[in-house]
Design goal:
The protein has 14 helices and four strands. It is mainly alpha-helical. A two-stranded antiparallel ribbon has the order 1-2. It is a multi-pass membrane protein.
Length: 350
């Protein structure tokens, strides 16, 4: 399971560390918005879990999917103009922040490309509630297990590519290898566990999809981001100036993303099966079997509304790593240029 590329990530640039942005009431004498609002970073303090949670509740808002192309372009113009020192007439601070989050919700922070609709972080809840709900509902027969695991990994492949860190290109061959490997791993895990649990209580079988998703995340994410493991991801100083590329930082970032994705899946794939196992024994649902799938999808959606932003907030988007942990060559280069620097920063992706 797995933003918008832009919305899902804090950007690497910025002359301030993550201290959050307090609303400003004062404006210039001409009535224009001041130019010292740091929209390179999220509005809320990213050094705290609560601040990160507020940030991700905003960027995973499914309503962002309803915005038109014209609205996205208008928000991009507002943000880019403001960064260039040009304030849109009549713009308020709340409107600026709204434009920033709309812009981030649709455009990759490193490449500037518009992210495909289902790859955006705002698509996480509606897409995952449908796919996960169906995986949990149709887990008994082999053809449906294979089909929904394939659908899930196809969706994950799009999301993982859309939310990669850095701007290093990835070839079609690499994408294909990652996609096939992750899908094969997920299907093999699901079918293997389905066979092993067929003589166990029915409730145990309901957790097979979660085990398959967890295993697939461990395969899919590193493979879809293998380019980062080969050439590294950009590391910067506190002001956002690039210092080089680090494979060590890429490994740390990908590990954090895998943990977040697995934790994100736990509530949606652990709570509904227990509830449904109890409800399906009741006469009401026995007489209305058709209610099973929509009810399961609804339960998954309710869990994901909270699990998605909260699990994205487990680790700072703009993560840090001590210089002493970097590759020897990069460490020497940084110490030569900045002898007193102890910590560098990178965008971990989502």
């Amino acid at each position: 399971m797995s933003g918008s590329a832009g919305a899902t990530r804090g950007e690497e640039g910025g002359s301030e560390s993550y201290r959050g942005q307090e609303p400003r009431a004062q404006e210039s004498k001409m009535g224009e918005l001041p130019l010292d609002i740091n929209i390179q970073e999220p509005r809320w303090d990213q050094s705290t879990f609560l601040g990160r949670a507020q940030h991700f509740f905003t960027v995973t808002d499914p309503r962002n999917l309803l915005l038109s192309g014209a609205q996205l372009e208008a928000s991009r113009n507002i943000v880019q103009n403001y960064r260039a020192g040009v304030v849109t007439p009549g713009l308020t601070e709340d409107q600026l922040w709204r434009a920033k989050y709309v812009y981030d919700s649709a455009f990759h922070p490193d490449t500037g490309e518009k992210v495909v609709l289902i790859g955006r972080m705002s698509a996480q809840v509606p897409m995952n509630m449908t796919i996960t709900g169906c995986m949990l509902t149709f887990y008994r027969k082999t053809p449906t297990v294979v089909f929904w695991q394939w659908v899930n990994q196809s969706f994950n492949a799009v999301v993982n590519y859309s939310n990669r860190s850095g701007d290093a290109p990835i070839t079609v061959g690499q994408l294909g290898t990652a996609y096939v490997s992750a899908t094969t791993g997920a299907v093999a895990t699901a079918l293997g566990l389905k066979f092993l649990t067929k003589h166990l209580p029915p409730l145990v079988g309901r957790f097979v999809p979660f085990a398959a998703v967890a295993a697939a995340n461990c395969i899919n994410i590193p493979l879809m981001r293998q380019r980062e493991l080969q050439v590294g991801i950009p590391v910067t100083d506190e002001a956002g100036q690039r210092l080089g590329h680090s494979v060590t930082a890429a490994k740390q970032g990908i590990f954090q993303v895998v943990i977040s994705r697995i934790c994100m899946a736990i509530p949606a794939m652990a709570i509904p099966p227990v509830i449904m196992n109890a409800l399906e024994k009741k006469d009401f649902l026995k007489r209305r079997a058709w209610l099973g799938a929509p009810l399961q999808v609804g339960l998954v959606g309710f869990c994901l509304v909270f699990a998605t932003p909260l699990c994205c907030a487990l680790f700072p988007q703009r993560s840090s790593i001590h210089v002493s942990r970097l590759e020897p060559e990069l460490r020497a280069q940084i110490h030569q240029q900045n002898p007193g620097m102890e910590v560098v920063y990178y965008n971990k992706g989502l």
